[in-house]
Design brief:
7-stranded parallel β-sheet; 14 strands; single chain; about 325 residues
Length: about 325
Amino acid sequence: MDMVTGATGLVGSNLLYRLTEKSDKNVCGLYRSDSKRDKVEDFFASKDQNHPKNFNKIKWRKADLLHLADLDKSLEGISRIYHCASLISFYRRDKNRLYKNNVVGTSNLVNLAISNGIKKIFYISSIAALGSIESQTQIIDISNSNNPKFLSYYGLSKHLAELEIWRAKQGGIDIEIVYPGVVISPSFISSSSGRLMNQIKKLGRFYTKGTISVIGIQDLCRAIDLLMNLEIKQNRWILVSHNLLIKEFVAKVNALYGKKAPTFKIGFYHWKILTLIDQLTRLFGISFFSGINYKSASSEIYYDGSEIKKMTDFFYTSLEEILRQFKDKE
Protein backbone atom coordinates (compact mmCIF):
# COMPACT_ATOMS: atom_id res chain seq x y z
CA MET A 1 0.00 0.00 0.00
CA ASP A 2 1.16 3.55 -0.73
CA MET A 3 1.39 6.19 1.98
CA VAL A 4 1.03 9.97 1.79
CA THR A 5 2.74 11.92 4.59
CA GLY A 6 1.36 15.36 5.37
CA ALA A 7 -1.99 13.99 4.24
CA THR A 8 -3.99 16.88 5.67
CA GLY A 9 -1.93 19.61 3.97
CA LEU A 10 -2.50 21.33 0.65
CA VAL A 11 -0.46 18.95 -1.52
CA GLY A 12 -1.14 15.82 0.53
CA SER A 13 -4.93 16.17 0.52
CA ASN A 14 -5.11 16.98 -3.20
CA LEU A 15 -2.80 14.07 -3.97
CA LEU A 16 -4.98 11.74 -1.89
CA TYR A 17 -7.98 12.86 -3.90
CA ARG A 18 -6.27 12.11 -7.21
CA LEU A 19 -5.03 8.68 -6.06
CA THR A 20 -8.41 7.59 -4.68
CA GLU A 21 -10.32 8.97 -7.67
CA LYS A 22 -8.34 7.04 -10.27
CA SER A 23 -7.96 3.70 -8.49
CA ASP A 24 -9.91 1.32 -6.28
CA LYS A 25 -6.80 0.61 -4.23
CA ASN A 26 -6.56 1.83 -0.68
CA VAL A 27 -3.98 4.46 0.20
CA CYS A 28 -2.61 5.33 3.62
CA GLY A 29 -2.81 8.91 4.90
CA LEU A 30 -0.41 9.91 7.68
CA TYR A 31 -1.76 12.70 9.88
CA ARG A 32 -1.33 14.37 13.27
CA SER A 33 -4.53 16.34 13.87
CA ASP A 34 -8.09 14.98 13.90
CA SER A 35 -9.54 18.41 13.13
CA LYS A 36 -7.41 18.71 10.00
CA ARG A 37 -8.45 15.22 8.91
CA ASP A 38 -12.08 16.37 9.15
CA LYS A 39 -11.21 19.25 6.81
CA VAL A 40 -9.90 16.75 4.26
CA GLU A 41 -13.27 14.98 4.33
CA ASP A 42 -14.98 18.33 3.74
CA PHE A 43 -12.59 18.91 0.84
CA PHE A 44 -13.50 15.54 -0.71
CA ALA A 45 -17.18 16.36 -0.27
CA SER A 46 -16.71 19.65 -2.11
CA LYS A 47 -15.13 17.91 -5.10
CA ASP A 48 -17.90 15.46 -6.09
CA GLN A 49 -20.74 13.25 -4.93
CA ASN A 50 -18.53 10.15 -4.70
CA HIS A 51 -16.60 11.54 -1.78
CA PRO A 52 -17.79 8.93 0.79
CA LYS A 53 -16.55 6.14 -1.48
CA ASN A 54 -13.27 7.83 -2.35
CA PHE A 55 -12.63 9.16 1.14
CA ASN A 56 -13.19 5.70 2.61
CA LYS A 57 -10.33 4.35 0.48
CA ILE A 58 -7.98 6.27 2.77
CA LYS A 59 -6.57 4.22 5.63
CA TRP A 60 -5.69 6.85 8.19
CA ARG A 61 -2.70 6.36 10.48
CA LYS A 62 -1.91 8.90 13.18
CA ALA A 63 1.78 9.56 13.73
CA ASP A 64 4.28 12.38 14.05
CA LEU A 65 7.50 12.19 12.03
CA LEU A 66 9.34 13.15 15.21
CA HIS A 67 7.88 10.26 17.25
CA LEU A 68 9.78 7.14 16.21
CA ALA A 69 7.61 4.46 17.80
CA ASP A 70 4.36 5.68 16.24
CA LEU A 71 6.05 6.34 12.91
CA ASP A 72 7.60 2.87 12.83
CA LYS A 73 4.22 1.27 13.47
CA SER A 74 2.58 3.38 10.77
CA LEU A 75 4.90 1.94 8.10
CA GLU A 76 3.62 -1.62 8.50
CA GLY A 77 2.43 -2.90 5.12
CA ILE A 78 3.64 0.20 3.25
CA SER A 79 5.63 -0.23 0.03
CA ARG A 80 5.91 3.33 -1.36
CA ILE A 81 5.81 6.76 0.27
CA TYR A 82 4.78 10.15 -1.09
CA HIS A 83 6.58 12.45 1.33
CA CYS A 84 4.52 15.66 1.31
CA ALA A 85 4.86 16.62 4.98
CA SER A 86 6.68 19.89 5.47
CA LEU A 87 6.68 23.05 7.56
CA ILE A 88 6.56 26.17 5.40
CA SER A 89 7.75 29.40 6.98
CA PHE A 90 9.96 32.27 5.88
CA TYR A 91 10.32 33.81 9.33
CA ARG A 92 13.83 33.77 10.78
CA ARG A 93 12.40 32.92 14.19
CA ASP A 94 11.19 29.57 12.81
CA LYS A 95 14.60 28.32 11.63
CA ASN A 96 14.87 25.76 14.46
CA ARG A 97 11.33 24.49 13.84
CA LEU A 98 12.09 24.24 10.12
CA TYR A 99 15.17 22.15 10.81
CA LYS A 100 13.35 19.91 13.30
CA ASN A 101 10.25 19.30 11.20
CA ASN A 102 11.73 19.19 7.71
CA VAL A 103 15.20 17.74 8.26
CA VAL A 104 14.95 15.63 11.41
CA GLY A 105 11.46 14.43 10.45
CA THR A 106 12.69 13.34 7.02
CA SER A 107 15.74 11.68 8.56
CA ASN A 108 13.49 9.65 10.87
CA LEU A 109 11.31 8.64 7.94
CA VAL A 110 14.32 7.54 5.89
CA ASN A 111 15.81 5.50 8.74
CA LEU A 112 12.57 3.63 9.33
CA ALA A 113 11.90 3.26 5.59
CA ILE A 114 15.23 1.47 5.22
CA SER A 115 14.56 -0.84 8.17
CA ASN A 116 10.99 -1.55 6.98
CA GLY A 117 11.97 -2.41 3.41
CA ILE A 118 10.18 0.49 1.70
CA LYS A 119 10.65 0.27 -2.06
CA LYS A 120 10.34 3.93 -3.11
CA ILE A 121 10.14 7.43 -1.64
CA PHE A 122 8.73 10.29 -3.69
CA TYR A 123 9.84 13.56 -2.11
CA ILE A 124 8.00 16.82 -2.74
CA SER A 125 10.69 19.47 -2.29
CA SER A 126 10.54 23.10 -3.50
CA ILE A 127 12.28 25.40 -5.95
CA ALA A 128 13.46 27.18 -2.78
CA ALA A 129 15.76 24.18 -2.21
CA LEU A 130 17.61 24.71 -5.50
CA GLY A 131 19.66 27.64 -4.25
CA SER A 132 20.65 30.71 -6.19
CA ILE A 133 23.62 32.48 -7.70
CA GLU A 134 24.71 36.08 -7.49
CA SER A 135 23.82 37.23 -11.00
CA GLN A 136 20.94 39.66 -11.37
CA THR A 137 18.94 37.46 -13.70
CA GLN A 138 19.34 33.68 -13.68
CA ILE A 139 17.83 30.59 -15.23
CA ILE A 140 17.86 27.45 -13.11
CA ASP A 141 17.44 23.95 -14.45
CA ILE A 142 18.40 20.63 -12.89
CA SER A 143 21.92 20.77 -14.31
CA ASN A 144 22.87 23.98 -12.46
CA SER A 145 20.75 23.64 -9.31
CA ASN A 146 21.65 23.07 -5.65
CA ASN A 147 24.03 25.99 -5.38
CA PRO A 148 24.74 26.34 -1.63
CA LYS A 149 23.31 29.87 -1.44
CA PHE A 150 19.75 30.02 -0.24
CA LEU A 151 17.32 32.89 -0.03
CA SER A 152 15.51 31.54 3.05
CA TYR A 153 15.86 29.17 6.00
CA TYR A 154 12.93 27.28 4.48
CA GLY A 155 14.92 26.66 1.29
CA LEU A 156 17.92 25.49 3.29
CA SER A 157 15.79 23.11 5.35
CA LYS A 158 14.29 21.57 2.21
CA HIS A 159 17.77 21.15 0.73
CA LEU A 160 19.05 19.41 3.88
CA ALA A 161 15.97 17.19 3.92
CA GLU A 162 16.72 16.25 0.32
CA LEU A 163 20.16 15.06 1.38
CA GLU A 164 18.37 12.64 3.71
CA ILE A 165 16.35 11.37 0.75
CA TRP A 166 19.58 10.69 -1.14
CA ARG A 167 20.70 8.66 1.87
CA ALA A 168 17.62 6.52 1.33
CA LYS A 169 18.88 5.81 -2.19
CA GLN A 170 22.19 4.69 -0.75
CA GLY A 171 20.16 2.37 1.48
CA GLY A 172 18.62 0.66 -1.55
CA ILE A 173 15.37 2.65 -1.85
CA ASP A 174 14.30 4.10 -5.20
CA ILE A 175 13.73 7.84 -4.97
CA GLU A 176 12.09 10.60 -6.98
CA ILE A 177 12.31 14.32 -6.14
CA VAL A 178 10.22 17.16 -7.53
CA TYR A 179 10.72 20.89 -7.07
CA PRO A 180 7.38 22.68 -7.53
CA GLY A 181 7.05 26.43 -7.75
CA VAL A 182 4.45 28.39 -5.80
CA VAL A 183 1.41 26.11 -5.78
CA ILE A 184 -1.81 27.88 -6.75
CA SER A 185 -4.84 26.01 -5.44
CA PRO A 186 -8.57 26.77 -5.22
CA SER A 187 -8.72 24.59 -2.08
CA PHE A 188 -7.14 25.14 1.34
CA ILE A 189 -6.89 28.87 0.66
CA SER A 190 -5.55 29.49 4.17
CA SER A 191 -2.34 27.76 3.05
CA SER A 192 0.75 29.62 1.86
CA SER A 193 -0.38 30.09 -1.75
CA GLY A 194 -3.87 31.06 -0.63
CA ARG A 195 -2.43 33.67 1.71
CA LEU A 196 -0.30 34.96 -1.16
CA MET A 197 -3.32 35.41 -3.39
CA ASN A 198 -5.25 37.15 -0.65
CA GLN A 199 -2.31 39.46 0.02
CA ILE A 200 -2.21 40.40 -3.65
CA LYS A 201 -5.92 41.18 -3.57
CA LYS A 202 -5.37 43.50 -0.60
CA LEU A 203 -2.15 45.09 -1.86
CA GLY A 204 -2.81 45.02 -5.59
CA ARG A 205 -1.34 48.48 -6.21
CA PHE A 206 2.13 47.34 -5.18
CA TYR A 207 4.83 45.14 -6.73
CA THR A 208 8.54 44.36 -6.47
CA LYS A 209 11.02 43.93 -9.30
CA GLY A 210 11.39 40.16 -8.84
CA THR A 211 9.82 37.13 -10.50
CA ILE A 212 7.41 34.44 -9.38
CA SER A 213 7.32 30.83 -10.60
CA VAL A 214 4.04 28.94 -10.23
CA ILE A 215 2.23 25.67 -10.85
CA GLY A 216 -1.43 24.71 -10.38
CA ILE A 217 -2.20 22.09 -7.74
CA GLN A 218 -3.90 19.78 -10.25
CA ASP A 219 -0.85 19.88 -12.52
CA LEU A 220 1.40 19.11 -9.56
CA CYS A 221 -0.64 16.09 -8.49
CA ARG A 222 -0.86 14.79 -12.09
CA ALA A 223 2.90 15.11 -12.40
CA ILE A 224 3.56 13.32 -9.09
CA ASP A 225 1.22 10.49 -10.08
CA LEU A 226 2.90 10.19 -13.48
CA LEU A 227 6.47 10.30 -12.24
CA MET A 228 5.93 7.84 -9.38
CA ASN A 229 5.05 5.17 -11.92
CA LEU A 230 7.45 6.22 -14.68
CA GLU A 231 10.12 3.78 -15.82
CA ILE A 232 12.56 6.56 -16.76
CA LYS A 233 15.39 6.58 -14.23
CA GLN A 234 15.66 10.32 -13.70
CA ASN A 235 15.41 11.29 -10.08
CA ARG A 236 14.90 15.08 -10.12
CA TRP A 237 12.30 17.28 -11.81
CA ILE A 238 11.51 20.98 -11.66
CA LEU A 239 7.75 21.50 -11.87
CA VAL A 240 7.01 25.09 -12.90
CA SER A 241 4.42 25.96 -15.49
CA HIS A 242 4.92 29.73 -15.65
CA ASN A 243 7.69 32.20 -14.81
CA LEU A 244 6.71 35.85 -14.87
CA LEU A 245 7.55 39.17 -13.31
CA ILE A 246 5.74 39.82 -10.04
CA LYS A 247 4.29 42.96 -11.60
CA GLU A 248 2.79 40.86 -14.40
CA PHE A 249 1.43 38.28 -11.98
CA VAL A 250 -0.19 40.92 -9.75
CA ALA A 251 -1.70 42.55 -12.84
CA LYS A 252 -3.27 39.23 -13.89
CA VAL A 253 -4.73 38.66 -10.43
CA ASN A 254 -6.03 42.24 -10.34
CA ALA A 255 -7.65 41.77 -13.75
CA LEU A 256 -9.62 38.79 -12.36
CA TYR A 257 -11.28 41.13 -9.89
CA GLY A 258 -11.74 44.05 -12.25
CA LYS A 259 -8.91 46.06 -10.74
CA LYS A 260 -6.20 48.11 -12.40
CA ALA A 261 -2.61 46.96 -12.86
CA PRO A 262 -0.15 47.71 -10.02
CA THR A 263 1.50 51.12 -10.16
CA PHE A 264 3.73 51.43 -7.08
CA LYS A 265 7.11 49.69 -7.12
CA ILE A 266 8.40 48.72 -3.68
CA GLY A 267 12.12 49.38 -3.25
CA PHE A 268 14.45 48.24 -0.49
CA TYR A 269 13.69 51.07 1.93
CA HIS A 270 9.95 50.81 1.31
CA TRP A 271 10.24 47.11 2.14
CA LYS A 272 12.09 47.88 5.38
CA ILE A 273 9.34 50.23 6.51
CA LEU A 274 6.57 47.81 5.52
CA THR A 275 8.39 44.97 7.30
CA LEU A 276 8.43 46.99 10.52
CA ILE A 277 4.70 47.61 10.12
CA ASP A 278 4.23 43.91 9.47
CA GLN A 279 6.03 43.03 12.70
CA LEU A 280 3.61 45.26 14.61
CA THR A 281 0.47 43.96 12.91
CA ARG A 282 1.52 40.37 13.59
CA LEU A 283 0.93 41.11 17.26
CA PHE A 284 -2.75 41.27 16.29
CA GLY A 285 -2.62 38.17 14.08
CA ILE A 286 -2.31 40.07 10.79
CA SER A 287 0.62 39.54 8.43
CA PHE A 288 1.31 40.93 4.96
CA PHE A 289 4.66 39.45 3.95
CA SER A 290 4.81 36.06 5.74
CA GLY A 291 8.48 36.63 6.58
CA ILE A 292 9.68 36.80 2.95
CA ASN A 293 12.81 38.92 2.65
CA TYR A 294 13.46 41.64 0.09
CA LYS A 295 16.22 39.71 -1.69
CA SER A 296 13.82 36.85 -2.37
CA ALA A 297 11.02 39.19 -3.47
CA SER A 298 13.28 41.14 -5.83
CA SER A 299 15.35 38.33 -7.40
CA GLU A 300 14.80 37.53 -11.06
CA ILE A 301 15.01 33.73 -11.17
CA TYR A 302 13.46 31.64 -13.93
CA TYR A 303 13.00 27.91 -13.36
CA ASP A 304 12.98 25.53 -16.31
CA GLY A 305 10.08 23.11 -15.81
CA SER A 306 10.06 21.81 -19.38
CA GLU A 307 11.96 18.55 -18.82
CA ILE A 308 8.83 16.58 -17.90
CA LYS A 309 7.22 17.65 -21.20
CA LYS A 310 10.28 16.50 -23.14
CA MET A 311 10.34 13.08 -21.48
CA THR A 312 6.59 12.38 -21.31
CA ASP A 313 3.28 13.53 -22.78
CA PHE A 314 2.64 15.76 -19.76
CA PHE A 315 1.23 19.25 -20.32
CA TYR A 316 0.74 22.27 -18.08
CA THR A 317 -2.53 24.12 -17.57
CA SER A 318 -2.63 27.74 -18.74
CA LEU A 319 -2.10 30.41 -16.09
CA GLU A 320 -5.46 31.98 -16.95
CA GLU A 321 -7.22 28.69 -16.17
CA ILE A 322 -5.28 28.21 -12.91
CA LEU A 323 -6.27 31.68 -11.72
CA ARG A 324 -9.86 31.27 -12.89
CA GLN A 325 -10.21 28.05 -10.86
CA PHE A 326 -8.93 29.89 -7.79
CA LYS A 327 -11.45 32.71 -8.21
CA ASP A 328 -14.37 30.38 -8.98
CA LYS A 329 -13.88 28.50 -5.70
CA GLU A 330 -14.07 31.61 -3.53
